[in-house]
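Q: What structure does this chain adopt?
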Amino acid sequence: MSHPTEPGFKTLQFYSTAAYPCSYLPELDARSQVAAPTHLIDAETYSELVEQGFRRSGLFTYRPHCDACQACLPIRIDTQRFQRNRTQRKTWNRHNGLITHTLPLHWSAEHFELYQRYQLARHPGAGMDEDSQAQYTQFLLTSRVDSRLVEFRLPSGALQMISMIDILDSGFSSVYTFFDPEAHGSLGTYGILWQLEQCRQLDLPWLYLGYWIRQSRKMSYKSSYKPFQILRNGIWAEPEGTIP
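A:
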């Protein structure tokens, strides 16, 4: 059992899970370091944990703690210096007419129906396409930190996308986004661009995107939002030259 050294962590305990199949590099096993007890992880403490590379799934706060692999690298985007590239500008212009509503976390049958369609189309056979209402609620609607749900709708009112975000002392943590799988024009990209713009308007310096994994197609896209920093050996820094 290991303990980060920051004073705010003195009342927390940290333990390692047993090995389990890695979701992103199927040939490998993974392990996580988990912070507990969950009732002590409030918004302030969670902000500190994110600075140390942790992430949240429901009430489960964790970071990679694998025995022989360091492929998962925490990544955060510099919101004040970020500049959209050509493709991102096209995506922004295509979807900038969407109407957003920022709401507390809550159950909605309409949201759940969109989530199920997204999982069936994007992650068939991964198990998440069989999520029940209870599993969905535990995964996305259960939080002890400052979490928000953002709806993206067409002017007609049709729901296009949902983003779950955590509000941190230094920015947003992007928890999860799902969208209409039949929509065109990179809605997921627009969701990240929208979060970056919101951070900029609120004068928050960072958008945390979880883990960047060069070897995983599902995770490597995060480095297209520049400039960004990677957490290595407890230090956030922009990579020098080409990322290894």
